[in-house]
Specification:
The longest helix is centred in the middle third of the chain and has 21 residues, at about 150-170. Strand 4 (about 100-105), helix 5 (about 110-125) and strand 5 (about 130-135) form a beta-alpha-beta unit. Helix 1 (about 20-30) runs parallel beside helix 10. The protein is elongated and about 90 Å long. The model has no long low-confidence stretch (mean pLDDT about 95). A seven-stranded mixed beta sheet has the order 3-2-1-4-5-10-11, with helices on both faces. By secondary structure, the protein is α/β, with parallel strands linked by helices. It has twelve helices and eleven strands.
Length: about 400
């Protein structure tokens, strides 16, 4: 194996546990005889281009250990899309610092970056081994059972919808509906997590709107009326990326990032929760609330899942293990080793970077109800061990008092 420097970075949006993965890479790389030192990219690949690399040997060891429970992206992130013109400059920096091991924590676009950088460097005679560490709250990475960051974000969603539903139930004479908008461009893994609220004794959410199914206005309004009639209020959870049958975003957003992804929270479009709010108010004259959390599920460590932090750290260590064994050009994956009725168990695998970069993983049909506005038992079996048990809140019987005498 080549002897030299290991370089690690973070890219794209953060998660509550991405720094735990960073700590895993640092920990494993620092113990390797083949790795002379461990450097970090300040603000992702831009740190390479701008010659801003940091030396972890100069950091307080306690601060590095503390990354295991610290939210955000401690190295700083980037959404720069590399072009062919960038690669000679990247190679120059890799040679300057004798970088032979390259690790990035991120999602689809990040895996594409690793793949392109390692391919270019190796084609120019600079031996480089690149391994991706999975990260995304969206849970849409190809080839893995789930991604570090998703369990904690899913718990955030489930708790938010559970608690907001308690408020909506009690305030139904004031507000007739509540809408919770979840992040996630084209996959419904996060909004679907709200269904766990029902396992804590709630009747809500009553309607789930997932990007995997086209939005039907009349079906939605009919479901809202039925839920209101039955429960006295309506709890709705929607993915930010839901679209009409022709592919038009319900949010009407037309803004795209440098990777061509629609930015649903950007200027130029209206948040889907606002659109749905106006739709219900105009149709029925109802008063309601909407909750748009945006990046909060990506950084709320107080709602983090211990399993998630531990798996993120282990994924970082596994990435280094793979690189030191010569297995480059892959992303670390997690595979579930148990049946639904057995205790949760997980093992590691790999997926080629090229395949991860070119594929997204929507929710499978078996996880979505026939009407498209709910989830199945199979999904609940899948997500339950990842999120853990939710609190059960008290609910009064509220029996009407009888007159005296």
């Amino acid at each position: 194996m080549p002897s030299g420097t290991a370089l690690v970075g973070q890219s794209g949006g953060p998660t509550s546990v991405i720094n735990s993965s960073l700590a895993g890479v640092i920990d494993a790389a620092a113990k390797s005889k083949s790795i002379s030192r461990v450097l970090g990219m300040r603000f992702g690949i831009e740190g390479v281009l701008n010659d801003h690399l940091v030396d972890f040997s100069a950091e307080d060891p306690a601060a590095v250990r503390g990354l295991r429970h610290t939210p955000g992206s401690s190295l700083g992130s980037s959404r720069l899309k590399l072009t062919d013109e960038h690669f000679p400059a990247v190679l120059k920096q890799f040679r300057k610092y004798n970088i032979r091991y390259f690790f990035l924590c991120g999602g689809n676009d990040t895996m594409d970056t690793i793949h392109r950088v390692t391919s270019y460097c190796n084609s120019q005679g600079h031996e480089l081994i690149g391994v991706g560490v999975p990260k995304t709250v969206d849970n849409d990475l190809y080839g893995t059972d789930h991604t570090p960051g998703y369990p904690s974000a899913a718990r955030y969603v489930a708790l938010s919808v559970l608690q907001a539903g308690v408020l909506a139930r009690d305030m139904q004479k004031v507000d007739q509906f509540v809408i919770y908008q979840s992040i996630g461009r084209s996959a419904g893994w996060l909004p679907a997590a709200a269904a766990l609220a029902r396992e804590a004794g709630a009747t809500w959410p009553h309607i789930l709107l997932l990007p995997e199914r086209s939005f039907d206005r009349e079906q939605f309004l009919s479901a809202a009326v039925a839920a209101h009639k039955k429960h006295g209020f309506v709890s709705i959870v929607c993915g930010e990326g839901i679209t009409y049958a022709d592919g038009t975003p319900v949010s009407a957003s037309e803004t795209r990032d440098k990777f061509g992804n629609v930015e649903f929270g950007a200027m130029g479009g209206t948040s889907v929760a606002v659109v749905l709010h106006r739709m219900l108010s105009k149709e029925f004259g109802w008063r309601g609330e909407f909750q748009i959390t945006e990046s909060l599920p990506m950084c709320s460590a107080d709602r983090g899942v211990k399993l998630d932090f531990d798996e993120a750290f282990a994924c970082g260590k596994q990435a280094v293990k793979l690189a030191l064994s010569g297995q480059g050009g892959v992303m670390v994956t997690m595979q579930r080793d148990n049946k639904p009725d057995e205790p949760y168990a997980m093992s590691f695998g790999t997926a080629p970077l090229r395949e991860v970069a070119n594929h997204e993983r929507p929710m499978p049909d078996k996880f979505i109800s026939k009407d498209g506005m709910n989830v199945t038992k199979a999904f609940l079996d899948y997500i339950r061990p990842l999120v853990g048990e939710l609190p059960k809140y008290s609910s009064l019987a509220l029996k009407k008092a009888k007159p005296q005498g």
